Amino acid sequence: MNGASRGGAMRKVALLLLASGMLWATTPYFTVEPGEVEIVPQPQAPPQITGSVTLRQAQDGQGDHARGTVVTGGGCLIYLSVPKAEPCKADDECDRVAGGVIRPGYCASISDSSASKKVCWYKPEPECCARRPDPKNPLELNVPLKFDNPTSPYPPGVRRPVRWRVVSCQNLKPGGCGSRSIPNGHLYRYGKIKQFN
Question: What kind and span of H or E run contains 10?
């Protein structure tokens, strides 16, 4: 290869690298943001509560590790009995077994401050959730995904006051939110707490 040919080849490589770098730099990150606990009035009955999650483009460059890909995930309402708060360090410490089935719990801060101590949070039964795990039916950008099955703010047998919040889950790997056994497969985010006395 003569000098001119080498120079032309190097320019092509440089252009390709520049183009790929520009594409990478402009490919956005996304986050699945938890919404607030919402009160749902009921005619001739006590109000219930629900929640939502929303896919947002990250403004600070932090978000989905597989950026630029289709984003899937969902979220649920979770609760905490303040008088029965159970300290924890990891999610699996909060798991419960009922009828031979493991019901996962969540180890999260007891208050809105992420620096506060962590305690176990649980989903109500039946759960109040919404999920979009299929890449063929992903989360829609800036469109809240409302939860199914609004629930009572006072779960049966749970001592008051009761705190509620939304937990969102974002798949970082296929099926990550459905299986905690997949390493680095999901990302949880926790919404603002609402207390019912």
Answer: helix 3-26
How many separate domains does the chain show? 1
Q: Is the pLDDT of residue 16 over 60?
A: no
Q: What is the pLDDT of residues 49-64, one digit of tens each?
A: 999 999 998 776 555 4
Return the higher-pLDDT residue of 114 and 77.
Answer: 77
DSSP 156: T
Residue 92 has pLDDT above 80, yes or no: yes
Is the distance from CB of 138 to CB of 70 less than 8 angstroms? yes
Is 21 part of a structural domain of the chain? no
Residue 22, SS3? helix
* Average pLDDT value for residue range 59-71: 58
Q: Which of these, 104, 110, 147, 109, lies nearest to 122 by C-alpha position?
A: 104
Is 186 a member of any domain? yes
Q: How is 32-83 classified by DSSP, letter by letter?
A: EEE---EEEEETTEEEEEE-EEEEEE-SSS-S-SSTTS---EEEEEEEEEGG
**Is the residue at 95 inside a domain?**
yes
Q: Is residue 116 part of a domain?
A: yes
For 66, the domain range is 28-196
Which whole number is the average pLDDT over 108-131? 96
